[in-house]
Write a structure and sequence with these properties.
heterodimer; A: 223 residues; alpha/beta; Rossmann fold; seven-stranded parallel β-sheet; B: 120 residues; alpha+beta; hypothetical protein PF0899 fold; three-stranded mixed β-sheet; three-stranded antiparallel β-sheet; 6 strands; 27% helix; 32% strand; elongated
Chain lengths: 223, 120
Amino acid sequence: MKRIKVEKKLLSTNQQIAEENRRLFKEKGVAVFNLLSSPGSGKTSLIERTVSHLQGRLRTAVITGDLQTDRDAQRIARHRVSVKQITTGGACHLDASMVRKALPFFHIDELDLLLIENVGNLVCPAAYDLGEDAKVTIMSVPEGDDKPLKYPVMFRISEVLIINKVDLLPYTDFDLGQAIKYARQINPAIKVFETSCTTGAGLEDWLRWLEGRVNRLSGATKK
Amino acid sequence: MHEMSITTNLVELLNEHLQGCPGARITRVNLKVGRLTAVEPDALTFCFQVLTEGTPMEGAELQIELVSVRARCLQCQSCFEVEGFYFQCPRCSGKELETIAGDELDLVSLEIEEDEKDKG
């Protein structure tokens, strides 16, 4: 019997590809955000609102991950941005190599911003770095204010939390202050936006932050 | 269930160690899994059983060491275990922390039994 010391990360292959993606994005001056949430939190609506606002301001593209359909991609494409659908065929998350394979679809030299809509799932995508600049987690009011406690890892590794569907607050017992408190127990530095894609409430703050961040990230390269 | 794709990676890593040793079997695999990884040890064990059926790894004991989350406070420099994902320094209530353990997802070591015939 032979004992062999290995000391190797199980996801080292994904990590390596993610770093390659990150280097490429940096070289091309593209800011990349990985959008994460449970199914039905309003990720696609938020992306629609975002790309529609950024029209003519930032050159934006979207990768959207879905288990089966291309319905989300069709919705986003209506806003005249390039969209690449990744159908994972059952896989519960996107990984760095899926993103790499999707990149030739875009003219990456001509982009400022790439939004990646991950598969709706607050657990599995947490393990996979895609090469993004930041993870943005979206939770919505009907899901309950204790969501951060139930899925702490995702809230821990996200830079931004968007609490969506705040127009439904009067109809639920969702406690906004409590939700933010829970999220900050897990991640004291998390930046929080409260939005409604139906009424447009709070979107301005998110969009201003996003644009500022993209200009800082891509401006550094494109000056 | 992302444990399936994580286990696929594990099996690939293990296969590298079996190459060039015909008849060898892997009998034990030691992993470290941090509590910050959202990986379920039972699911890993299940996936490992499924993926290794009929291979030279079938029946190998998968030993999973769960690693608690630990952090260092950047204000008072004390190190402590983070309980219940409450990221606050118990000494000075500082919230600027550096995670020092808990995000491991590592293959630490393995045990191989070589084919008796090859030993001559």
